[in-house]
């Protein structure tokens, strides 16, 4: 691993920032990331996903590391440097509440995400994904079917959805014990969200990365589009919102770039001088 300080450290959300929900990754985004690294910047993913949930086409771009689980773990050059999980008793509390309120939970560890088959079916149905004939409709990359969720270990974050219980109801129930935010991955925002440890955000992972590299906050650039990017954008020396970002993120950002479908990531890299 290199220990000298890079020129800039760039943190990128995945869904809605690098990868559109409804189209291939723009080639301009791939080019921008690769050119920035060639120019001496360190570029890391900063995502709510686990390692296994990252799409092959995203990983093929090439990165210096990742902040995963919305800040719960950090890998640099394939080596883990930070890890913060939920306590086992907290996982039990979450499962018990979900089971009694018809909430589907996806329990994420750094390496894999577990969910019951019924939850995977509900996810596919809510997403409205078309399934090819002859394929298993609930094969979701990075998610493994597990009926006994009480056996899950090293849980860093929980994605959830429900047709009965709203995100606000989940938030009210766990107020003061967990962070609960609305999701921005193409599902109904009032019926799906993320639950994580209090005090653990993408900014937590960013801080660990900057400490590792010996950099200041002013050396960091963050680009995102969703609610779980708020702390990331606020923490960064330069926070940039995609043109397709939620309004609270746009208001918080130092700069709003173009939409993901309009070469927004490439234009953000040009704006900050990462590439010419």
Task: Give a concise summary.
With 276 residues, this protein is of the alpha/beta class. It is 29% helix and 22% strand. It contains nine helices and 14 strands.
What does this structure look like?
The protein is of the alpha/beta class and 276 residues long. The protein has two domains: 9-84 and 200-271, HAD superfamily/HAD-like (Rossmann fold, 3-Layer(aba) Sandwich); 88-197, Hypothetical Protein, Haloacid Dehalogenase-like Hydrolase, Chain: A, domain 2 (2-Layer Sandwich), CATH 3.30.1240. It has nine helices and 14 strands. The strands form two sheets. It has an eight-stranded mixed β-sheet with strand order 5-4-3-2-1-12-13-14. Helix 1 (27-38) runs parallel beside helix 9 (264-271). The mean pLDDT is 92.
Throw out a few tags for this protein:
276 residues; alpha/beta; Rossmann fold; 2 domains; 8-stranded mixed sheet; 9 helices; 14 strands
The gyration radius over C-alpha positions equals 18 Å
Q: Helices and strands: which structural class?
A: alpha/beta
CATH class annotation of the largest domain: Alpha Beta
What is the overall pLDDT average? 92
Indicate the low-confidence ranges by residue numbers: none
The count of helical stretches stands at 9
**Widest sheet: strand order?**
5-4-3-2-1-12-13-14
Number of domains: 2
Q: What about the largest sheet?
A: 8 strands, mixed
Strand content: 15-25%
The proportion of residues forming helix, as a percent range, comes to 25-40%
Shape: globular
CATH architecture of the largest domain: 3-Layer(aba) Sandwich
Termini Cα gap: 27 Å
- CATH fold title of the largest domain: Rossmann fold
Compressed to H and E, one letter per element, the order equals EHEHEEEHEEHEEHEEHEHEHEH
Number of strands: 14
């Amino acid at each position: 691993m290199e220990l000298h300080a890079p020129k800039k450290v760039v943190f990128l959300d995945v869904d809605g920032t690098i990868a559109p929900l409804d189209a291939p990754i723009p080639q301009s985004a791939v080019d921008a990331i690769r050119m920035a690294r060639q120019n001496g910047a360190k570029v890391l993913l900063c995502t709510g996903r686990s390692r296994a949930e990252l799409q092959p086409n995203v990983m093929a771009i090439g990165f210096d590391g990742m902040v995963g689980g919305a800040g719960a773990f950090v890998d640099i050059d394939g080596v883990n440097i930070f890890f913060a999980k939920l306590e086992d008793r907290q996982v039990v509390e979450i499962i018990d509440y979900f089971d009694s309120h018809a909430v589907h939970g996806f329990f994420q560890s750094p390496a894999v995400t577990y969910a019951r088959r019924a939850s995977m079916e509900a996810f596919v149905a809510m997403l409205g994904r078309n399934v090819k004939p002859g394929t298993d409709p609930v094969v979701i990359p990075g998610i493994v079917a597990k009926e006994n969720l009480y056996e899950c270990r090293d849980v860093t974050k929980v994605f959830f959805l429900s047709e009965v219980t709203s995100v606000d109801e989940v938030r009210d129930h766990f107020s003061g014990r967990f962070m609960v935010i609305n999701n921005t991955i193409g599902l109904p925002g009032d019926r799906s969200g993320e639950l994580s440890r209090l005090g653990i955000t993408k900014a937590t992972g960013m801080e660990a990365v900057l400490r590792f590299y010996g950099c200041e906050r002013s050396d960091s650039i963050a680009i995102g589009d969703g609610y779980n990017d708020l702390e990331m954008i606020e923490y960064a020396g330069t926070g940039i919102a995609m043109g397709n970002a939620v309004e609270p993120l746009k208001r918080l950002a130092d700069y709003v770039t173009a939409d993901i479908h309009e070469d927004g990531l490439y234009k953000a890299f040009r704006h900050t001088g990462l590439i010419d």
